[in-house]
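Running this now, will post back.
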Amino acid sequence: MPFCISCGQENPDIAKFCLACGAPMATAPTPATAPPPVETRSEERRLVTAVFTDIVGSTATAEQLDPEDVRARLAPYYAEVRRELELHGGSVAKFIGDAVVALFGAPIAHEDDPERAVRAAFALTRAVEQLNRTDEWLDLNIRTGINTGEAIVVLGSNPGEDIGEAAGDVMNTAARIQGGAPLNGIVVGELTYALTKHAIGYREGEPVVAKGKAEPVPIWEALDARDVPTRREVRRGTLVGREEELAKLLGLWEQVVDVRLPATATVVGTPGIGKSRLLEEFGARTAEQGTLLVGRCLPYGEGITYWAVTEILKASAGILQSEGAAEISEKLGLSDEAVQAAVTGVCSKLGLDHEPDDRRRLLAVLTYLRS
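Update: finished.
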């Protein structure tokens, strides 16, 4: 069957024009095989969050080292930075000497890209600290600047996996403001701050006098992040629709109240369809009959299997995020022996005496709370 010489689409023998692109079919004898695909690149205007991380004092250190030692010093740093950025959904755009430029929002965009970027910055700062503890010779210190804004992003032939270059003031500003961060600190621009202040603790910093900027650039220093993301506060109105779904949840709740046995409901739907709003309404309707406990998981990262459960247990025990192991153990009132006894008791009540996997799961949750 003939192939279109413009796009490579296979067409029936009688086709005069390509069924895919509409180009006239060649009248010359048809090649036996399709022509090689043509690499395509596209440009898109996107709202992105740029992360610029630089090693402090690297120029002076590199001057005293052999090139191979410089490479040996940077190799683990590059690996850790790339791992943490990609783990949070970012893409490394390029390495410039010892500086790393990453993008969140391209090639794949998420609804919480600015928050992911800040959380990734915290993670890579911890990763660098761990590298220094592993090998004191590295002695790495970094500063990170994060900025959100529009940029022209060049995407490769597979926009979901390949990213080329990005251009825009957002990139330059991220590089400029990182100089205003403290040692091993993180600073963000105004839009990043506005989009993440619900989930990240900040302290306003001194505006940065940046080259090429008419006015000093306002910055905020990121201090800490909540363990589990919370949605930005939205003023809720009356629930419209969803009567059928709400009726099913309320019906299940009535069964639980009547027979005094637990039940589980799973609400599934595409993002933005109103799942959280439905559950909020359900919680409000049943507030007088029961206690509502909420736990959330990060949509990315490692070690998040039990986060929702542990958040529920923390809330019921009155455990604060700032409390350490000693305070948590005191509030739980559990020694190592008590942990084992509690797991045995819970498994017995739930009929899990012969399920060692469930015992291990419960033990992992309680141990996590005490660690």
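The chain has eleven helices and eight strands. More later if anyone needs it.
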